[in-house]
Amino acid sequence: MSSFRDDGSTGCAMLASKMAERRHRRRQETGMGRLTTHVLDTAHGVPGGGMRVILWRVAGSRQQMADVTTNADGRCDRPLLDGATFVAGTYELDFHAGDYFAARGIALPQPRFLDVVTLRFGVSDPAQHYHVPLLVSPFAYSTYRGS
């Protein structure tokens, strides 16, 4: 008698992997790659709604691609880039964190420790979804490539 017990997690992991592969293949076939962002205010434990975000394409000089304000959920109402405008290359996202915290009445030193948080990142496969979130407080931030 075997002591192995299948709790279903292996099957769930395989199913999730197959679904992710199908989504990736569908995006590649239909060119559904896109760039999105999300802001989380880690100082207050809430979405970073109302933060200005500017997207730049960096190719020698900076070319502005989008200038948006996050919604109440800390997200943009549509992708920052998608379709033919989403190409491989280097990009920067400027998050206006200092203005966001000042607008919420947070006493900030002058000059602000964090004012505009700039994230420079590369897109190698524009058929994929690149999600670049910002977790931010008046004195720290982090990011990662999300999904």
UniProtKB/TrEMBL annotation:
SUPFAM superfamilies: Transthyretin (synonym: prealbumin) (SSF49472). It catalyses: 5-hydroxyisourate + H2O = 5-hydroxy-2-oxo-4-ureido-2,5-dihydro-1H-imidazole-5-carboxylate + H(+). InterPro entries: Hydroxyisourate_hydrolase, Thyroxine_BS, Transthyretin/HIU_hydrolase, Transthyretin/HIU_hydrolase_d, Transthyretin/HIU_hydrolase_sf. Keywords: Hydrolase, Purine metabolism. Residues 35-146 form the Transthyretin/hydroxyisourate hydrolase domain. One of its GO terms (molecular function) is hydroxyisourate hydrolase activity. Its EC number is 3.5.2.17. Gene3D superfamilies: Transthyretin/hydroxyisourate hydrolase domain. Belongs to the transthyretin family. 5-hydroxyisourate hydrolase subfamily. This is 5-hydroxyisourate hydrolase.
